[in-house]
Amino acid sequence: MGRTRAIWLLPGALAALPAYHAAYAVQYMSIAEAQKAAFAGASGFAPVAVDRAALDAAMAAVPESALGAGWSPQVFAAKKEGATEGWLIVDQVIGKAEAITYALALDAQGTVTRLDVLEYRETHGGEIRLPAWRKQFVGKTPADPLRLDADIHNISGATLSCRHVTDGVRRLLWLYAHALRSA
After folding, report:
1. DSSP 136
2. I need a labelling partner for 158 at 20 to 30 A (CA). Which of 35, 80, 99, 182 fits?
3. CB 122 within 8 A of CB 98
4. Cα(16)–Cα(32) distance, integer angstroms
């Protein structure tokens, strides 16, 4: 009798366990691959140190979806014949529960030329990698409002990823306008 009762209790005990949200990480591009894809004609990429005050100001201007007070994107100046051809900024935002690493390419005037998802760690919402969704950012500048459901379309089932990447791009455009434009 004791063994039979234990078998009947097993499904209930398993159902009572906390749900495990399985996450996985898939790297789609390296930083070097993103640099080459965005600036095929560049002769090199120079890392750019951004002043902590500028980073803090960008965080304060667009705090949504950031990964915390230590937010520090990687900035590279794409060089061609000694001149800055544009910028590649590698950043992370929170998706639903995990980080999304993406690269934003800007031309020398601060216009978005490309958005790539480098690494995606969530189980859902990976549709943000679709070229049609990412292409919505091309041509955007710091003057654009960049709001989900306004000038950037949402993807059903990927709402948080869409919202947070959009917020992240808006933050990077703010950073360009206030810290990189004059660099």
Report:
1. G
2. 35
3. yes
4. 46
